[in-house]
């Protein structure tokens, strides 16, 4: 039991270090523990979602635009931009004409093209506008949607790890090679409780589902156009999933 708890601690440490910019040190063996335990993805989602939602507590006290900016900055401070780099790379690959080999070449190219600029602009603008929408909600609902969207995005990453097939050697092959379809049970079980955060209103559950669907969009595109997933697809799934989950949650509350 002690060894198992120690391994889980290593997985959480490595997962937090990889998915956030929080000052968490890692040791030998931590990475292997992380890639073999997909439940860490949604667990870190709870942490990031809760911390990023702190500026939303000022809704109703500060201007909505200020609260939205605070939320955007909190996401940037907590997670950095390395996942956003996946959005940029997929944006460039999406506008290239050619077979999967040609698109994979573009993914590795360090040159920033118009596809990358457009994709990153849409995602950042979408996140800022979602923050503005959250600032207009009751504080408790806004926090529930923010946390649920973050957990849903991380659940999407976990499903990619469990069910995806790598397009080439790299991060994607490291993660997907360590797991199988039976591994989806633990991350799903960890993520589902967030859907009860706004009970009796199902807003958080809707945000969770929206984020999961949004995270699956890059996966669907990558299977058709890249021949499988890569580290860039994981990063894009995280960023797109979050934005879609937030907007779906705000819309659900507005229409309720």
Automatic annotation (TrEMBL):
Membrane topology: Multi-pass membrane protein
Cofactor(s) in the UniProt record: Mg(2+)
MF annotations from Gene Ontology: adenosylcobinamide-GDP ribazoletransferase activity
Subcellular location: Cell membrane
E.C. designation(s): 2.7.8.26
TM segment ranges: 39-58, 64-81, 112-135, 141-163, 175-197, 203-222
Keywords, alphabetical: Cell membrane, Cobalamin biosynthesis, Magnesium, Membrane, Transferase, Transmembrane, Transmembrane helix
Domain of life: Archaea
Any Pfam family hit: CobS
Main subcellular location: membrane
Protein's pathway: Cofactor biosynthesis; adenosylcobalamin biosynthesis; adenosylcobalamin from cob(II)yrinate a,c-diamide: step 7/7
InterPro entries tied to this protein: CobS
Catalytic reaction(s) noted: alpha-ribazole + adenosylcob(III)inamide-GDP = adenosylcob(III)alamin + GMP + H(+); alpha-ribazole 5'-phosphate + adenosylcob(III)inamide-GDP = adenosylcob(III)alamin 5'-phosphate + GMP + H(+)
Protein role: Joins adenosylcobinamide-GDP and alpha-ribazole to generate adenosylcobalamin (Ado-cobalamin). Also synthesizes adenosylcobalamin 5'-phosphate from adenosylcobinamide-GDP and alpha-ribazole 5'-phosphate.
Stated family: Belongs to the CobS family.
The protein, known as: Adenosylcobinamide-GDP ribazoletransferase
Origin species: Natronoglomus mannanivorans
Gene name, Swiss-Prot/TrEMBL: cobS
